Amino acid sequence: MGVFDDLVGQDQATTVLSRAAAAAGETVRGGRGAGMTHAWLFTGPPGSGREEAARAFAAALLCPDAGCGHCDQCHQVLIGSHPDLETVRPAGLSYSVKQTRELILRAAGAPTQGRWRVILFEAADRATESAANALLKAIEEPPPRTVWLLCAPAPDDLMITIRSRCRQVTLVTPGTEAVAHLLATRESVPWETARFAARAAQGHISRARALALDEATRHRREAVLSIPRSLTGVGECVSAAERLVKTAEEEAAASTGALNATETTDLRRLYGEGSTGKGLNRGLVRGGAGALKELEDRQKSRATRIKRDSLDAALLELISFYRDVLAMQFGAGVELANDDIRYELDQLAKVSTPEETLRRIDAIMRCRERLDLNVNPQIAVESMMLSLRVKHV
Ligand SMILES: [Zn+2]
């Protein structure tokens, strides 16, 4: 089994990457290695597996056997501990120029294992403009054995000067069958559950995995999908908005709480707490307090991002609900994302018109745009709920 086997439904990308990995191996052995490039850009819709594809490619570059999938090198890459692979994840809403400069310095080092030094930049679209400029310089003049792997939703999300220097790998939304097959074979999920999760996640692999394996995720989905039928009056709309925003907050708190605590403990230890009694006080005077404040700011900004992402995921779920309703109203024989609640979809399809359904989808899209513009979530979601109200059930 090779490292590219896990890339579901991405045959074209896999071909390009395997060829490049073979060429890279040739370079390491002293050959010309035609077809290898120092900067790569992985794009594709959310859930298509951009980071996974980049990580598989990193393994193929660092493995002596072009990504066999079972040697030490491959294993270290896949669990994120390979000394020649640096993975950068956005901690907050954007990357600062300082973070990027530090990264570029580290990237310039020679590979410890003699092959490549790989920098995997997840969500490169979140780099600030000055950070992107620093990045551009690094990509323009890469050290001979450094490879940059950038991930972003679409090529347009990066400055043209950066993307024109990258070789592009475009990933596609994998089909329901392919995702279900992955869940069934890799995660041993029963076939019916795998099909349900793949359909409901609409090609979003990690979402499908969460729906198949995590009960809390399934409950959250049920809660979101029960909203449309509950919106019978103004009071119901306001309380549905409150619930949705609160759920997003709780989800963010759950996924950041433990991480924040570990980071804070690590930082305090770095400044001497726990070693000698007086260490912390001396250390804090010398800059620990500043570093702690900086860490807290970063954690706050990360929490905001996760809150926003999880609210957006709920809105996308609502859109999938109304898209199903619309498909039923038009009698289109397409597969429904939410086939498990077919009866509820049918009820709404019968008491409303396709025009009303389209208006509702529009209202959700508008809400997403407003959230993007930093409108208070409660206000934006409340006004959306009012537009979704059902007047005659
Ligand atoms: Zn290997």
UniProtKB/TrEMBL annotation:
A GO MF label: DNA-directed DNA polymerase activity
One GO cellular component term: DNA polymerase III complex
SUPFAM superfamilies cross-referenced by the UniProt entry: P-loop containing nucleoside triphosphate hydrolases
UniProt keyword terms in alphabetical order: DNA replication, DNA-directed DNA polymerase, Nucleotidyltransferase, Transferase
Xref: InterPro entries: DNA_pol_HolB, DNA_pol_III_delta_C, DNA_Rep/Repair_Clamp_Loader, P-loop_NTPase
Protein's recorded name: DNA polymerase III subunit delta'
Catalyzed chemical reaction(s): DNA(n) + a 2'-deoxyribonucleoside 5'-triphosphate = DNA(n+1) + diphosphate
DNA polymerase III delta subunit C-terminal domain boundaries: 318-388
GO BP: DNA-templated DNA replication
Keyword Lyase: no
Gene name in the database record: holB
Entry EC no(s): 2.7.7.7
Record organism: Nonomuraea glycinis
